[in-house]
Design brief:
single chain; alpha+beta; Pnp Oxidase, Chain A; UbiD C-terminal domain-like; 2 domains; nine-stranded antiparallel β-sheet; five-stranded mixed β-sheet; 25% strand; binds flavin mononucleotide; binds manganese (II) ion
Length: 471
C-alpha cells in the first residue's frame, strides 16, 4: 500500500485496533469533535477518532490520529525507545522527492467560486477560539529568490468562504519568505496539504539547518521519495497522495485580525493583525478524509516534539558521545529528559546545555539521568531525581536564556496597567546522575536478571478462585 493518510489509518486499525475508534452519530464540527476528544483527554485517553457524519459536510474527519509517540514510532517503522535516535540519524540522509504526472489529490478540482471552505468539516476547537481553524495543514511556498520549496505546519483561521488566516512565528521560514515577497510587493503563492502519512507532517515540522528541505526530510523519514504533482492554479509542487490541497495566494502587506486561538502551552495567546490567504482552488480525492490535529492537546505537542527530539539527540551526541536517549514527554513540550553513559563529571551539564541550545524557544526544564533510567518512563526519571540529585549542587538555573518569547505565558511580564510584555525565557537543569567512577554509589535493587528474563508470566498466572480462601 502506498504511504498516505489512509494507509496509516489502515495500519493503526490492523496493528493497534484499540487505538482507533469510530463515531457514526452526526457530530457538529463546532465543539462537537473536541468535546469528545477533550473528555477522553481528561481520562488520559488519546485514541484516534474517526467521525463518519460531520454536520454540514460530506467528508469524514479524523482527529488524534497522530496523538501518541507509539503511533508516530509506528509511522517511522521503529519503537518509542528508538525513535529519537532513528530520527536523528535519518535526518543526516535526505531523500529527494519524485515528480509524478498525476495523483489522487487531483481527482476533484474545484476552482474559483467552487472552491468553498464550507465543503470541509473544519472544527472550532476550544471555547475562546475566534472560530474554525485548519490545524493539520502543511503550508508549502517557494523562496522568491532561489525557487526552493519550504513547508511548515501553521494554524489557519477560517475568515471567509475563500479566505484563511496564517500565524507565522518569528523564527520560522514561512514568515521570513512572506516578508521578502511583501518587500517586492508581490503576492506569495501557497498550497496547504491536508492529510498524508505522518512522516510528511513530521518532515514539515523538523528543525532543519537552512530554508527548505522538508520534502527531502519527509523522504528520509519514510525511506522512500515523497511523490509530488504540479498544483492547479499556483506554481508549486504538492504531495500527490495528500487527501486535500488548498491553493491560494497571500497579498503583500495586507493584514486581517487573527485569533485568539488555544495554543500548545494550553493558553489562548497570540492574537492580532496577520497576513492572510485568498483561496484560489481546492483539489481533493473523491472520498477525501479530513485530517485534523487537536490543538493545545497531546496531539499538538507530540507532533511538534518528536522532530525536536531527533535534533536534540543529534546535537547532544556531538558534545557527549555517551548520550543514550532523549525524551520530550508527550504531555510537556517544555521538558526534556536525557540519559547518558557518563564518562566525566562534566558530561551532565554538557548534555543539558546542548539540549537547551537545540530547543531554546520551548525547553524550560532539563533532567539528565544515567543510562539505567528509561527516559520514557517518567516515574523512573522522578525516582532518579529523588535519589541521585542534590539541590545545592545539582540544580542550575539559567536566567534570561532565550527569547523574548510570546506563546509561553511564563515569559510574560505584567505592567501595572495589566499590559503584558514578552520577556526572555529562563531554564533549569537537574543533574540526576550518580557521581562518576571511582566514586561508588549503592547498587540498584532488582531480582536476579537471569531469572527475570527466563520467567514466563503467561504460563504461570491463573485466575484466582475466591473459594481458595475461606472466612
Ligand atoms: C500542529 C502544529 C501546529 C503549528 N502551528 C504553528 C503556527 O501556527 N505558527 C508557526 O509559526 N509555527 C507553527 N508550528 C511549528 C512549525 O510548523 C515548525 O516550527 C516548522 O518547522 C516551521 O517551518 P519553517 O521554519 O520552514 O517555516 C506548528 C507545529 C505543529 C506540529
Ligand atoms: Mn523550513
Amino acid at each position: 500500500m502506498a504511504k498516505d493518510l489512509r494507509a496509516f489509518i489502515h495500519e493503526i486499525a490492523t496493528t493497534m485496533p484499540d487505538e482507533i475508534q469510530l463515531v457514526t452519530e452526526e457530530v457538529d464540527p463546532r465543539f462537537g469533535v473536541t468535546a469528545l476528544a477533550g473528555k477522553l483527554a481528561q481520562q488520559q485517553r488519546f485514541p484516534a477518532l474517526y467521525f463518519t457524519r460531520m454536520k454540514g459536510s460530506d467528508l469524514p474527519l479524523v482527529i488524534n490520529l497522530t496523538a501518541s509517540y507509539e503511533r508516530l514510532a509506528l509511522a517511522l517503522g521503529t519503537t518509542v525507545a528508538e525513535m529519537a535516535t532513528a530520527y536523528g540519524e535519518r535526518q543526516a540522509k535526505p531523500i529527494p522527492p519524485q515528480v509524478v504526472r498525476d495523483g489522487p489529490v487531483r481527482e476533484m478540482i474545484l476552482t474559483g467560486e467552487r472552491a468553498k471552505l464550507s465543503l470541509l468539516p473544519i472544527p472550532t476547537h476550544n471555547e475562546l477560539d475566534s472560530g474554525a481553524y485548519i490545524t493539520g495543514g502543511v503550508l508549502i511556498c517557494k523562496d522568491p529568490d532561489t525557487g526552493l520549496h519550504n513547508s511548515g505546519m501553521y494554524r489557519h483561521e477560517v475568515q471567509a468562504e475563500r479566505q484563511l488566516g496564517v500565524y507565522f512565528q518569528g523564527s520560522h521560514h514561512g514568515g521570513a519568505i512572506y516578508k521578502r515577497y511583501a518587500k517586492k510587493n508581490r503576492p506569495m503563492e501557497v498550497a496547504i496539504a491536508i492529510g498524508h502519512y505522518p512522516t510528511f507532517m513530521l518532515g514539515a515540522v523538523s528543525r532543519l539547518p537552512g530554508l527548505g528541505g522538508e520534502f527531502e526530510e519527509a523522504g528520509a523519514l519514510l525511506g522512500e521519495p515523497l511523490e509530488l504533482v504540479k498544483a492547479e492554479t499556483v506554481d508549486l509542487m504538492v504531495p500527490a497522495r495528500a487527501e486535500i490541497v488548498i491553493e491560494g495566494e497571500m497579498p503583500p502587506r495586507e493584514t486581517h485580525f487573527e485569533g485568539p486561538f488555544g495554543e500548545w502551552p494550553g493558553y489562548y495567546v497570540a492574537e492580532g493583525e496577520q497576513p492572510f490567504i485568498k483561496v484560489k482552488a481546492i483539489t481533493m480525492r473523491k472520498d477525501a478524509i479530513y485530517y485534523n490535529v487537536f490543538p493545545a492537546s497531546q496531539e499538538h505537542l507530540v507532533l511538534g516534539s518528536l522532530p525536536r527530539m531527533g535534533s536534540i539527540y543529534r546535537r547532544v551526541k556531538e558534545s557527549v558521545p555517551g548520550v543514550v536517549n532523549v525524551n520530550v514527554p508527550a504531555h510537556a513540550r517544555t521538558h526534556c529528559y536525557v540519559s547518558i553513559k557518563k564518562s566525566s563529571e562534566a558530561d551532565s551539564k554538557e548534555a543539558a546545555m546542548a539540549a537547551l541550545k537545540t530547543e531554546p524557544e520551548n525547553l524550560r526544564f532539563v533532567v539528565v539521568v544515567d543510562e539505567d533510567v528509561d527516559v520514557f518512563n517518567e516515574s523512573q526519571v522522578m525516582w532518579a531525581v529523588g535519589t541521585r540529585f542534590r539541590a545545592e549542587k545539582d540544580l542550575t538555573v539559567i536566567p534570561n536564556f532565550s527569547g523574548p518569547g510570546g506563546l509561553n505565558p511564563s515569559n510574560w511580564e505584567y505592567g501595572v496597567d495589566e499590559s503584558r510584555k514578552p520577556v526572555m525565557g529562563s531554564a533549569m537543569i537537574l543533574d540526576a546522575t550518580m557521581p562518576a567512577p571511582p566514586l561508588r554509589f549503592p547498587p540498584r535493587t532488582k531480582p536476579p536478571e537471569e531469572l527475570v528474563s527466563r520467567v514466563e508470566p503467561e504460563r504461570l498466572l491463573k485466575r484466582f478462585d475466591p473459594k481458595l480462601v475461606k472466612s
